[in-house]
Specification:
With 214 residues, the protein is mostly beta strands. Helices cover 12% and strands 37% of the residues. A hairpin with a 2-residue loop joins strand 1 and strand 2.
């Protein structure tokens, strides 16, 4: 069954939305199950090519097969964005697993110089979060004064500047990586903070537009 998710606007520039219940518990269980046996050590992707760099990224990644459940999540992500036309598509969905001390240092999701267009949008979906640490930090976003946001972001004990979203199962953070004119938005710099104990698994959904070049 499709979830009854709720959307809150966190930032308008860049556009950052917080989505409660973007995926159901049954979808989470399914994604975790089909990811097993597929995990490989995560790469970094600079202009020079892909390789393992444990100073930048320590995690495992798994591309998930496009079965009926995954296709339903893809459909939800496309509908959420109101996508139209042949220029837009979703990259193959990928789960990310972080053990103790797992992290992904500060980076952008847009693709740099690419003949294939650019990653215009990102969903960071939290699946399994039996951990401490492991939040998603945006150092260039401004922390809101409204204390109600403290349910989903770190407030009093955040050791990092900017905004850190807590990893809450089923929730997602959505953001646009580009300005409306097609230029990259540098306020979308972010990091997967180190997991201090336990394990975190997330799902990346990246939206591409082949008509947008960086």
């Amino acid at each position: 069954d499709a979830p009854n998710y709720e959307v809150q606007i966190f930032s308008r520039d860049p556009l950052v939305l917080y989505i409660t219940n973007f995926v159901t518990q049954s979808e989470i269980d399914h994604l975790l199950r089909i990811s097993e046996g597929r995990y490989e050590q995560s790469m970094v992707y600079p202009v020079s090519g892909e390789y393992v760099d444990t100073n930048q990224r320590v995690s495992e990644s798994a591309y998930v097969p496009r079965d009926d459940v995954v296709r339903q999540i893809e459909k939800r992500a496309r509908k959420f964005q109101g996508w139209r036309g042949k220029a837009t598509h979703l990259q193959e969905l990928k789960t990310q697993r972080y053990g103790v001390n797992g992290f992904y240092n500060f980076h952008y999701d847009w693709a740099g110089d690419s003949d294939e267009g650019n990653r215009v949008t990102t969903f960071m979906v939290y699946l399994a979060t039996n951990c401490t640490g492991g939040g998603t930090n945006f150092p260039r976003l401004e922390r809101p004064e409204d204390r109600r946001w403290c349910n989903v972001i770190e407030c009093d004990d955040d050791e990092y500047s900017g905004v850190t979203f807590k990893p809450i199962p089923g929730a997602a953070v959505f953001w646009e990586n580009m300005h409306p004119n097609g230029s990259v938005h540098r306020a979308t710099r972010h990091a997967a903070l180190p997991v201090k104990s336990g394990e975190k698994v997330g799902l990346n959904i990246w939206g591409w537009d082949t008509s947008w070049k960086s």
